[in-house]
């Protein structure tokens, strides 16, 4: 009987030990905090992790997601970096005033994020630029080059190269003629099928992409009034290409160390948009990844490793 008891107890003790190990709290440096700050009367939600005296990485998300796209990257960097990822107005858990109450332009998004960084006391930072994050981040960099320690570019354009494909044709028509008809033609970009396509097109294995992605994004897109917000930003995106020469001049003049980790199968910002950075930058760490638009969904570990190596080298030299 004693032997049987011991045999029965041993696995139980092992199980208890396993549960105890699994239940150990996340270390303070990598624990992700979910916070909100007031900027010009708006609630700006952000995720934050890592020691505040460590080098800061500012993560700027793309369309149609939010800081949620960085949910795995943040803890992967936070042991050695102070990581901050805000949601723009109209996205994620930030305020989403109507288009009548807030001017949804990229200039205005950049204004909000600039004030956000100042409110949080972020004096110097590296910027992760992805999709919409590129026009927001480059505006910040041009305004305050002294604050930018390095750039991490993931499927975010600063050149005309790559935005001449079929995807952009109806959007460019909207830039030329902001008619109701042209706007209504873009509403198909805001459907569940379109959102799924953004997450799954060009990936190696669609089974690695969690439905939690579009499960998070689509209900936010479907909020009353949010389509009008997105249409306003589709139109405002037309303000970005005329600024490309200014952004390129910033790169040539200030030569920020830059890591490019680009999903090469992206149909929105294809690899053609990645190569021109090498024309203007002397210090560029260049990687094309065999994945799609939201490269972090399939290659988060790869990108985290690239960032850690890149920042470890650049910020200690």
TrEMBL record:
<dbReference type="Pfam" id="PF00561">
    <property type="entry name" value="Abhydrolase_1"/>
</dbReference>
<dbReference type="InterPro" id="IPR000073">
    <property type="entry name" value="AB_hydrolase_1"/>
</dbReference>
<protein>
    <submittedName>
        <fullName>Haloalkane dehalogenase</fullName>
        <ecNumber>3.8.1.5</ecNumber>
    </submittedName>
</protein>
<dbReference type="InterPro" id="IPR000639">
    <property type="entry name" value="Epox_hydrolase-like"/>
</dbReference>
<keyword id="KW-0378">Hydrolase</keyword>
<dbReference type="InterPro" id="IPR029058">
    <property type="entry name" value="AB_hydrolase_fold"/>
</dbReference>
<dbReference type="GO" id="GO:0018786">
    <property type="term" value="F:haloalkane dehalogenase activity"/>
</dbReference>
<keyword id="KW-0732">Signal</keyword>
<feature type="signal peptide">
    <location>
        <begin position="1"/>
        <end position="22"/>
    </location>
</feature>
<dbReference type="GO" id="GO:0004301">
    <property type="term" value="F:epoxide hydrolase activity"/>
</dbReference>
<dbReference type="InterPro" id="IPR051340">
    <property type="entry name" value="Haloalkane_dehalogenase"/>
</dbReference>
<feature type="domain" description="AB hydrolase-1">
    <location>
        <begin position="55"/>
        <end position="299"/>
    </location>
</feature>
């Amino acid at each position: 009987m004693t032997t049987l008891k011991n045999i029965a107890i041993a696995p139980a003790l092992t199980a208890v030990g396993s549960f105890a190990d699994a239940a150990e709290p996340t270390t303070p440096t990598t624990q992700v905090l979910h916070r909100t700050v007031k900027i010009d009367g708006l609630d700006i939600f952000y995720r934050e992790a890592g020691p505040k005296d460590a080098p800061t990485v500012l993560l700027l998300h793309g369309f149609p997601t939010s800081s949620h796209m960085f949910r795995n990257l943040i803890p992967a960097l936070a042991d050695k970096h102070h990581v901050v990822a805000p949601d723009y107005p109209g996205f994620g858990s930030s305020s989403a005033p109507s288009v009548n109450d807030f001017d949804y332009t990229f200039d205005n998004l950049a204004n909000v994020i600039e004030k956000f960084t100042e409110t949080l006391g972020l004096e110097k930072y590296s910027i992760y630029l992805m999709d919409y994050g590129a026009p927001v981040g480059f505006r910040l960099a041009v305004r305050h080059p002294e604050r930018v320690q390095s750039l991490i570019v993931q499927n975010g354009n600063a050149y005309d190269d790559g935005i001449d494909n079929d995807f952009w044709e109806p959007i460019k028509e909207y830039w030329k003629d902001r008619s109701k008809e042209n706007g209504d033609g873009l509403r198909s970009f805001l459907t569940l099928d379109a959102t799924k396509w953004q997450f799954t097109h060009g990936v190696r294995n669609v089974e690695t992409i969690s439905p939690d992605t579009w499960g998070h994004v689509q209900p936010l897109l479907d909020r009353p009034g949010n389509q009008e917000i997105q249409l306003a930003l589709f139109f405002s995106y037309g303000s970005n290409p005329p600024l490309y020469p200014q952004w390129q001049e910033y790169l040539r003049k200030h030569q920020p160390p830059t890591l490019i980790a680009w999903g090469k199968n992206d149909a929105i910002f294809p690899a053609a948009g990645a190569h021109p950075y090498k024309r203007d930058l002397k210090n560029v760490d260049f990687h094309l990844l065999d994945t799609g638009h939201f490269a972090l969904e399939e290659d988060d570990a790869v990108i985290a490793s690239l960032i850690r190596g890149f920042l470890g080298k650049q910020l200690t030299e």
